[in-house]
């Protein structure tokens, strides 16, 4: 047998890219590739890229510059760009970067084996189609090796919402939900390989409407079916849109014990004027009412969010509304970004808020969010939580895992507890984690 070729994948962007990188490794596994953690050893390097903000997209070009010496040292090295920058700027990448052999978008990576054969012959290959066929039906399953206790599983992809600032509907395409039976099969396979916690992924995961018994299923119905899989202990999902938070999903937070009490529910802004300009189709008030209903179903639900400051037209009064919303919700965790104009999106045509004004607002918002995150974490001290142990900690005899609220928790526990869930009592809150003792 020929010696295996080595594949190095660098992943940027969201969790879906993490999942996609695994699937690309599976696809190229069928062409004789095994993954390596060392780019210097690789026969092929793939950059799985993100286009969400300008900074994210620019990283690709600087990373490609850094790969030049590797290609000079090894002319057989093949370099590919995958993901959302590939989708948005495929032709431009090929023009600007002669060292790139292959460009593949997020919906065509099941075609990687054919593309690999083409580039091995010395040609270049670009595929940024939105194909008729479903890539998931054409992907080989990876080797059935054991793996860590947590995994991502994409159930829905793409977005039909067209928020005025966002590239995702263009880079990922229209909303598509995978059929129920495929998801259950993949989940059972993950559990057999040691997985205890699955995070269901979708750009609009709560808009899930995949075909199952008797027609299209909601995300709540899918979660309830997954909860019946023996050995699967924890279920999470991300990312959700407020307008798709249906009653049965809210109820599941109260009555499905395997569904973890953590919800990422981006709102972007607290100003109705800006929400309208963003094409979000909800108000600050409707979001707050939704949070109330979720907390009524699950009082200890930890909320996470995304915010954009400096959206075109945002005034100081609009920003005050965002701060007020944050104070009203009290987030356990959140991400906030300065607006970045993205080519091809409606908002890119509008006048930007001056950069220093946006930076100042981001500062103030992040200070408030950090304070809330701190307070939420500190309030865990003295409480009993359950931890799924993932790996050894930094100190000998210590393991690190996640609580149901997604806090990182350090515990003194034997190595054979990895992959298991234990009850612990939180003893301290440090910068980005909790310390706890086994009960
Ligand atoms: N599908 C998810 C999130 C997609 S992108 C959702 O709808 O919530 C993740 C986050 O990046 C967004 O929630 C938003 O806060 C941020 N984001 C998207 N486009 C952006 C832009 N042009 N500038 C700054 N932040 C942006
Ligand atoms: Fe982007 Fe809006 Fe779709 Fe989220 S809902 S992916 S922010 S367009
Ligand atoms: Fe980035 Fe594409 Fe995800 S733009 S955030 S990698 S969907």
From TrEMBL:
Residues in Radical SAM core domain copies: 145-378
Cofactor binding description: Binds 2 [4Fe-4S] clusters. One cluster is coordinated with 3 cysteines and an exchangeable S-adenosyl-L-methionine.
Subunit structure: Monomer.
EC number(s) reported in the record: 2.8.4.3
Catalytic reaction(s) noted: N(6)-dimethylallyladenosine(37) in tRNA + (sulfur carrier)-SH + AH2 + 2 S-adenosyl-L-methionine = 2-methylsulfanyl-N(6)-dimethylallyladenosine(37) in tRNA + (sulfur carrier)-H + 5'-deoxyadenosine + L-methionine + A + S-adenosyl-L-homocysteine + 2 H(+)
Domain TRAM: 378-439
Predominant subcellular localization, coarse grouping: cytoplasm
PROSITE patterns attached to this UniProt entry: MTTASE_N, MTTASE_RADICAL, RADICAL_SAM, TRAM
Residues binding [4Fe-4S] cluster 1: 14, 50, 84
Name this protein carries in UniProt: tRNA-2-methylthio-N(6)-dimethylallyladenosine synthase
Domain MTTase N-terminal: 5-121
Protein keywords: 4Fe-4S, Cytoplasm, Iron, Iron-sulfur, Metal-binding, S-adenosyl-L-methionine, Transferase, tRNA processing
Localization (cell): Cytoplasm
MF terms (GO), sorted A to Z: tRNA-2-methylthio-N(6)-dimethylallyladenosine(37) synthase activity
Source organism phylogeny: Bacteria, Pseudomonadati, Pseudomonadota, Alphaproteobacteria, Rhodobacterales
Pfam family, one: Radical_SAM
Keyword Ligase in record: no
Segment forming the signal sequence: none
Catalytic class of the enzyme: transferase
Cofactor(s), names only, from the UniProt record: [4Fe-4S] cluster
Binding site for [4Fe-4S] cluster 2: 159, 163, 166
InterPro entries: Elp3/MiaA/NifB-like_rSAM, Methylthiotransferase, Methylthiotransferase_CS, Methylthiotransferase_N, Methylthiotransferase_N_sf, MiaB_methiolase, rSAM, rSAM_horseshoe
